[in-house]
Amino acid sequence: MAIYVRFQTPKEVQDLAYDLVEKARDSGKISKGANEATKQVERGQAKLVVMAEDVTPEEVLAHMPILCEEKNTPYAYVPSKEELGSSAGLHVGTAAVAIINPGKDKASIENIVKKIDALKKQG
Which CATH code of 3.30.1330.30, 3.30.1490.110, 3.40.50.2000, 3.40.50.1370 fits the domain covering 11-122? Predict the structure, then answer.
């Protein structure tokens, strides 16, 4: 497990995260990449950060869980940066995606945040 992964994300939540990124890409607003996601969290604009677990070097995302917790921004993990990149509309993988505006699917973001909170309490 990577140094920045604080909890195991079940497959159901991973699939929900990929789906949310796709929907936000189409009808809302997302920021792609570790640097852009970091900026959005620092500005308090990110509603959810989705991070890939297979990022190398791991230091690229080492700061992200700490920053998200400081700013009370929910975050989740997905196994593949390639699949995360594709969900975000990229032809390459991406380490992280910040959802700024979930678009039409605000209920799903609240749903995934509740599931993530429950996971963190278990861990």
Answer: 3.30.1330.30
